[in-house]
Structure to design on (219 residues):
């Protein structure tokens, strides 16, 4: 009997991932001029980030491709938003560049290191010796709060360019959201740096072990 070959690209969570990319592209196209439409597509794409994870577990369709697609879509979405923000607030371009560089590089090396370690998800690496990362990944409330606060900061900056919003505590609502969520965004960037440091240490360990194995074979 012929063996049936699975098509990873047609797995439900990966199809959701492709839909996220399409929504992100629409958001990018309208981002400079159409706030409501762009926000709707961007937020929907972000919300589907949680849906694809549940789908992967429900249908038993977790894949390395899906994990990589998920991370790349997240990073590309944030990068696209920051590029637009840099055109809206040119005086803060440097800080937006730094934030984008931290987000992309630290998450990339972290995910790549996990892949080399044979992990099926970037969230399963052993962080038991690092209390900050342990809480970040084992406490779903903390994880949601940090991710939502980070998104709220950049989203509020974006919407502020178009709308003031109702006045709350003597200032526009979106400015208030931006100020309240700013500390969360800063901490989130710090955690991304920890991602990069931990991944670098783990990657160095992989290098050491591989070099030791090669040396042992040569001897």
């Amino acid at each position: 009997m012929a063996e049936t070959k699975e098509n990873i690209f047609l797995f439900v969570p990966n199809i959701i991932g492709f839909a996220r990319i399409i929504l992100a592209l629409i958001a990018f196209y309208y981002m400079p001029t159409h706030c409501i439409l762009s926000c709707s597509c961007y937020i929907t794409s972000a919300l589907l980030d949680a849906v694809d994870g549940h789908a992967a577990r429900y249908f038993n369709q977790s894949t390395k491709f899906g994990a990589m697609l998920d991370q790349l879509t997240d990073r590309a979405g944030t990068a696209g938003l920051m590029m637009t923000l840099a055109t809206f607030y040119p005086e803060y371009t440097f800080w937006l560049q730094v934030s984008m560089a931290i987000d992309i590089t630290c998450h990339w090396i972290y995910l790549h290191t996990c892949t080399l370690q044979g992990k099926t998800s970037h969230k399963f690496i052993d962080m038991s010796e690092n209390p900050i990362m342990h809480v970040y990944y084992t406490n779903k409330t903390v994880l949601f709060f940090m991710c939502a606060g980070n998104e709220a900061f950049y989203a509020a900056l974006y919407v502020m360019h178009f709308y003031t919003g109702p006045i709350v505590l003597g200032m526009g609502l979106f400015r208030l959201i931006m100020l309240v969520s700013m500390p969360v965004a800063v901490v989130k960037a710090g955690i991304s740096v920890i991602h990069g440091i931990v991944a670098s240490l783990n990657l160095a360990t992989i290098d050491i072990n591989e070099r030791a194995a090669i040396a042992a074979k040569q001897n």
Observations:
- Confidence is low (pLDDT under 50) at residues 120-124.
- The beta strands are 167-168, 171-172.
